[in-house]
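Researcher: Please predict.
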Amino acid sequence: MNKLAAALLSTLVLLAACGKQESAAPSAKAPSEAPAAEQPAAPAAEGGAAEPTDQATADQAATAPAETVSEMDDGPAPGQPQSASTTQPSLKLGGPAGGPPTSARFKEGTNYQKIVPAQPTNAPPGKVEVTEVFWYGCGHCFALDPAIESWRNKGKAPYVEFNRVPAMWNESTRLHARIFYTAEVLGKLEQLNSLVFREIHVNGNQLNTVDKIAAFFQQHGVSKEKFTETFSSFAVESKLQRADFLNKRYRIQSVPMFVVNGKYSTDVGSAGSEPQLFALIEELATHEHGG
């Protein structure tokens, strides 16, 4: 009976999200590109208090000014002047201070995690950024995509600025990220985003070579010459570098993952269900907007 229970628990965990290990295709490198230091902060243990040393460290991190804390090599060293870069988002740390960000039905450490330090956003004034980190090859991302499209077109608050950032773990995810940004630079992302998911998960075309990707774009009205020019363009390379930067800053270990205003992260499994996920995002966004 214990073996059966363990097997069922393992199955439920696998259904929650696509992890780094799942993203390695047979022809791709193992996900060793992510530095060992990129491990997410462990959630607080249920039913027990943290060790005093750990608690003191957490308190210091939570109260430190975000712009002076750098936990990745990408950011400038404390005290050094920041130079403009096309590979990093502009610094905008928003949201009201004080007060719980959600109602009693959602708990920090269980339903969502606080990102410390808070990360920059690109949302314009008066907007709250909600970011989905995804991978085209992830079945869970594909399954959730229709609900996301419905929410962003009809359900989200007008002050929510929604965007997507592709996972950047290894060759497989980076190749699919290049598809995403190629479509964006060509002005075809709205047309092609869901079609890329379908090409992979319904038609069985993994889009794992440049030739397959070129053929897909040609089927949807992009000449081979225009595709080749854009696929390796500076604009796409810059967007890939920024996605890599954000993946590290958010400490992404699985997808789909959602980040609200650079300060909170959650997913379907943590929220409890798809409806709960969007309700949680709404509460966090409302808090960040000052509601």
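Model: Residues 28 and 172 are 6 Å apart (CA to CA).
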